[in-house]
Design goal:
Rossmann fold, alpha/beta, 10 helices, about 290 residues
C-alpha cells in the first residue's frame, strides 16, 4: 500500500507558489479572512492559513467580528472587501453562528474573489466544466493528491461517500468531468444509502467524506482500491496529550493491507486544503491583473 503523504505534496505546492510569487514585481496577492466569533477550531484554522500565506509571500488581513454580529454588519464588511482592489481573495471562515445563513453569506463574496469556491456562481461553473471559476479547496486538494500520486481515474468507478456542498458534491463533479483526473463513472452515497457496503466494494477509488470516525471498515472495500479519507474526527483517547486524537472516516490500520493507495489522518487531505486556498488566491490575483 502506498501511503499518500499530503504534507509532502502540500509542501511541494507551497514551494511552487512561493517561487511564483517571488517573481512578481509591484503589487502582491492578498487574502482577507473574516472570522465571526471565537470558535476554537476556526481560530486554529485561520491561524494556520495566515502562517502559510506569510511563508509564500501572500499578504493577509484578519477581520474579527463578534459572534452576535448582525447580518447587515457582516455584509457591509464583505462588500468593502469586494470593492478593495488590494484584496485578491476573501474567505469567510465556517462555521458561522446559527443566526447567519452560510449560503447567503458565501454568495455575498464576489465570485472573482471567492477563493473558497462556495459562491453559487463558482459551483455552477464547476457543473458546466467552466475553468474560469474557483473550485472549493478540499475537492481541489483531492484532485491534486490523485494526480500527483499517479492514481488512474479514467474509466474507473469512483464512489464518493458523502454529499456535502463543501466536499462530496464538488468531488463527484470533478471526477465526472471530461479531463484528468476525471473521466470516471461516479456513484454518490450517503447516510441513507441502502446496501452501502455492496456499493463501496465496487469502488476502484473511494472518497470518504461522511464525518463518522472509522466508518469505512475492511469489509466495505475491495482489494486494490485507492482510498482518499477526508474525515477529521476527534475521538477520546486517555493516552493522548490532549485527551483525544484525530482519526479519519476510514479505519486506516484495517484497510492498509487491502488498499493500493491511502491517505492518513492527519497528514492527508487536510494540508492540501490550505495549499489550494493559496493556489486560488494567487490565481485570483493573476486574473485581476491580466
Amino acid at each position: 500500500m502506498q501511503r499518500i503523504d499530503g504534507n509532502a505534496i502540500a509542501e511541494s505546492i507551497i514551494k511552487e507558489l512561493t517561487a511564483e510569487v517571488g517573481t512578481l514585481t509591484g503589487p502582491k496577492p492578498a487574502v482577507a479572512f473574516i472570522r465571526v466569533g471565537d470558535n476554537p477550531a476556526s481560530v486554529s484554522y485561520v491561524r494556520k492559513k495566515e502562517k502559510t500565506a506569510a511563508r509564500i509571500g501572500i499578504g493577509s488581513q484578519l477581520h474579527l467580528l463578534p459572534a452576535d454580529v448582525s447580518r447587515e454588519t457582516l455584509f457591509e464588511r464583505i462588500d468593502a472587501l469586494n470593492a478593495d482592489p488590494e484584496v485578491s481573495g476573501i474567505l469567510v471562515q465556517a462555521p458561522l453562528p446559527k443566526h447567519l445563513d452560510e449560503t447567503e453569506t458565501f454568495n455575498r463574496v464576489a465570485p472573482h474573489k471567492d477563493v473558497d469556491g462556495f459562491n453559487t456562481v463558482n459551483i455552477g461553473k464547476l457543473c458546466q466544466e467552466d475553468d474560469s471559476g474557483f473550485v472549493a479547496c478540499t475537492p481541489a486538494g483531492i484532485v491534486e493528491l490523485i494526480a500527483r500520486s499517479g492514481i488512474e481515474t479514467e474509466g474507473k468507478h469512483v464512489v464518493v461517500l458523502g454529499r456535502s456542498q463543501i466536499v462530496g458534491k464538488p468531488a463527484a463533479l470533478l471526477m465526472m468531468r471530461k479531463a484528468l483526473p476525471g473521466n470516471a463513472t461516479v456513484t454518490v452515497c450517503h447516510s441513507r444509502t441502502t446496501n452501502l457496503p455492496e456499493i463501496t466494494r465496487q469502488a476502484d477509488l473511494l472518497i470518504a467524506a461522511i464525518g463518522r470516525p472509522h466508518f469505512v471498515t475492511a469489509d466495505m472495500v475491495k482489494d486494490g482500491a485507492a482510498i482518499i479519507d477526508v474525515g477529521i474526527n476527534r475521538v477520546e483517547a486517555a493516552d493522548a496529550p490532549r485527551g483525544y486524537r484525530l482519526v479519519g472516516d476510514v479505519d486506516f490500520d484495517a484497510l492498509a493491507p487491502k488498499a493500493s493507495h491511502m491517505t492518513p489522518v492527519p497528514g492527508g487531505v487536510g494540508p492540501m486544503t490550505v495549499a489550494m486556498l493559496m493556489h486560488n488566491t494567487l490565481r485570483a490575483f493573476k486574473l485581476a491583473h491580466a
